[in-house]
Structure formats: structure tokens, C-alpha cells
Amino acid sequence: MSDLFEDEPGDNTPEFSVTEISGAVKKSIEGGFSHVRVRGEVGRVSRPRSGHIYMDLKDDRAVLAGVIWKGRAQGLAHQPEEGMEVVATGKLTTFPGQSKYQMVIEDIAPAGAGALMAMLEKRKAQLAAEGLFAPERKRPLPYLPEVIGVVTSPSGAVIRDILHRLRDRFPRKVLVWPVAVQGQKCAPEVAAAIEGFNRMTPGGALPRPDLLIVARGGGSLEDLWGFNEEVVARAAAASAIPLISAVGHETDTTLIDFVSDQRAPTPTAAAELAVPVRMELLAWVDGQAARLSRAISTGVQQRQQRVRDLGRALPQVDMLVEGPRQRLDYLSERLPAALRGAAARKRLQMSEAALRPGVLSRRLAEDRRRLDGLGARLVPALKRRTRDGAVTLERAGRGLRGEVLRDRLDRQGERLDTVLRRLSDRASRQQAERTARLEALDRLRETLGYVETLRRGYAVVRGDGAVVTGKAAAEKARVLEIEFADGRVDVSKDPQGSLF
Questions:
Q1: Helix, strand, coil percentages, rounded to 5, for the chain
Q2: What crossing angle do the helices spanning 230-238 and 113-129 adopt, rounded to 10°?
């Protein structure tokens, strides 16, 4: 190869085209650096739509351009980020279009745990700034979930530990979503499992879980790195189902622990957080039932004692009814005399009422005279009205023929006769109705009057002109008069007040 660039004397120096010289340089570099590992800090990172990744590797003195083709970029365990210290594996080549050399990277990995921790802290700060770690975002876990979804490897010891612990504490339905728990497939599969559980329909053929557990056993930082990926953290933060993270041992911490609703130090502890102990719950229920029974019994006893205390303060039943009973006896004794006195007063009122025959006859005669007077006044008034109407018609219809006027006058006269007959009939009916009503009232008066009572054997006693209703009034009266149905009898007294 050294002969290619050897100077020839004279005019026999070979000439090369740009393409030939670029190809020769490319073969020389690729032949000498076909497989290299380069350690450096990631500088500028570019991801165009083609899917390739263009980046710079640099140290304090130089910069090396690098490219990761699309097929390799999709399978990388760690995506390059600016400022990350990495070890890149690949080969050197040239890019003739710009006369520069670059490294085609086939694999890239953080340069030790320090680089991984630096990248982890950077991601943690970014997610914390977005508020994904805020305590107010965390939701309480359901006390007793019906269905528990577990995201873990189906073949590891983790799922057996979780199922065993759930069976011992409180058996529940468990749905397992199998995923890879380390390697390149870990992060996308875990994120897809969390999103898949959330897309399930509540109450469907495959029930949606009430609680999620993302679990994995212990391991190194590199083994647990899938749970530090941003896609997993964002999927856990967006989950509508409460989520428990149980990744690694108690000392292991991943990003999913910060965004989950509850962190468990181990998968077994996650099962303990998910459900209560059934026997302890039954014992607690029994204790509460006993407390409730004692409280009810104590309450009933206290109320019974209260009722007895109040009962002693109340008066006896006999004492409560003695007064009303005595008043009833007193009123019962007064009732017959009161009824007799009321009946006597009513009889006296009826005897002195205005329904006597003479009064009724006078009122009937007065009504007849008043009706006759109104009738006598009614006929002239109607005739005057008719005459005035005829005059009005005559004045209004002077242009009409005489026969038409006479016809109208005849019709008016007929209507007047009809009205007079109706008025006369109406007055006769009213008079007959009033006469019948007066006769009925008179019969009622006679029936209710004391005269009819006298005919049944009773008598009315008057003393000094007033009705006497008691012995004391009779003894005080100077002259007594007894009225029977067929007449009155005077009873005289001697000077000592005795009858003779």
C-alpha cells in the first residue's frame, strides 16, 4: 500500500481520481480498524425520520463522529443520551461525500455503574419536574380487590411466591401477564402489559383487575435497568388502576418505584399489601359483633332502668281518673234536671213565639194586600209602557205603511197579554206556595207547642204570672195557677203558705 503513495521522479507520477483516492483511504481505514471499542462521552445526538442515529463521541481532546443504523438502533439495550459516558463497539469507516471518517456503532453500553447512575438521576430529575412523583397523584389501594393483575415472568419464583402468599392471606382471582423481566424486551413488554390491563372492560368476559402488581426478583443494576426506562415509568404513572411496584430486593430502587402508588420491598411484601389476612379479618368481625351485642344489651338495660325511674315519678292510674270520675258522677246527677229545665224553657218559648194563628193570619193578610197593591200598579205600568212604545214606533215609522204599524201593535198587544198572564200565574203560584208553607209551619208550631203536651196529661204551673219550674219558686209565689189542656185553675194559699 505504501507503493501507492510513493513519489515517482520526473513526469511519471501516477494520477488518481477523487473516487479512487477516497476508496483507497476507505479500504486502508476499514482494514486497520475493522473491530474497535471506543470509550467516550456522548455529544450531539440526532435522530432523523429514517430511524438512524447520528452522534458524536468525544473526550477532552478529540471528537469522533458515529452512526447507528436503524436495524441496530431498535435493538439497543441502552439508547444513547447526550452527556452519557459509554463504551461503543463497531468499526471505523469513511464517508467520501464529506471526506471524513466515522465509526459505525454496532453496540453501545454505559461505561460502568457510574454512567448508569448518572443517566438514572437525569431521568429521575426530568420525571420529577413533570410532577410524576408528586404524593397527591398516588391513589389509595383497594382494601379487598376482587381481581389482581400481576406483571412478571411466568416461569420465575416471583409469581409462585405471590400466589402462595395470596392463598395464605386471602385467596383472590389473579391474572398474570407474562413479560420479560430483563434485557432488551423488558421495558416495552412491561409498558404494554400495564396499558393492556387498563384497556380491559370492567365486568367483561375477562374481568379488569382492581389492583396491579409489577414484580421481579433481585439483580444487578443492569438486570433491573428495564424498570428504569422512561416508557415504563410513564406507563405506570398513566395507569388508572392502583399499582404496586415490587422490583428487586429492599435495597434496590428503580424509577417505577417513584411513580407507583405503593412500593413493596419484595414481591412477597406486595402480596401482603394487596390483601388483608382473612383469619384476622374474621376475628375482627367477630370482635365487632361481640362489641355490638354488648352495646345493644347495655343500651337496653339502661333504657329499662330509665323507664323504671320515670315510672316511679309518674302518678298512679287511680289517682289520675279519680277527679274525672267524680266530675262525671256530679254531671250525671245534674243532667236529668238540666234536660227537664231546657225542655220547659223551649216549651215556653214556643208558646210565646210569633207562630200563633192570629199572628200568622195577620201576616198572611198583609202579604195579600201587598201583592194586590203591586198587581194593581203593574197593569197600568205595563199599559203605559206599551203606549209609550207604540208612540215611539209611530214616530220612528212614519214613512211605513199603516198596515205594518197596526200589525206590529197587534203583536205587541199579544206579547203584553202573554206577559200579564205569566205574571198573574206566577203571583198565584207564589201566593199558594206561601200559604202552604204558613200552614205547614202552623202545624209544626202546634205539634211542638206546649198545648199538645198538655193534652198528653201534663200541666203548666204559674206563680204570680210567671212559669214555676221548682218547689222553691212555688213556695215563694203568693198565687199559683195550673193550666191544663181544657182550662186553667187558680190555687190559693193560706197565710201560712199551705194550699187549700
A1: 55, 20, 30
A2: 30
SS3 at position 427:
helix
DSSP string, 112-133: SHHHHHHHHHHHHHHHHHTTTT
Question: Can you tell me the mean pLDDT for 316-332?
Answer: 81
Lowest mean pLDDT among 163-172, 355-364, 445-454, 473-482: 355-364
379 vs 377: CA distance, rounded Å: 6
Angle formed by the axes of helices 230-238 and 186-199, nearest 10°: 10
pLDDT in tens, 374-415: 777 776 776 777 666 666 655 655 544 556 656 766 777 787
To which H or E segment does residue 73 belong?
Answer: helix 70-73
Highest mean pLDDT among 326-340, 437-451, 468-482: 326-340
Q: How many whole angstroms separate alpha carbon 256 and alpha carbon 275?
A: 21
Residue 51 phi, psi dihedral angles, 5° rounding = 95, -10
Q: In what helix (H) or strand (E) does residue 91 lie, and over which residues does it extend?
A: strand 85-95
Task: Using CB atoms within 10 Å of the CB of residue 329, give its burial: 0 to 12 exposed, 13 to 18 middle, 19+ buried.
Answer: exposed
Q: In whole angstroms, what is the distance from residue 302 CA to residue 108 CA?
A: 81
Strands (DSSP E) found in 111-241: 147-152, 173-178, 211-216
* Cβ neighbours for 253, distance < 8 A, ≥ 6 positions apart: none
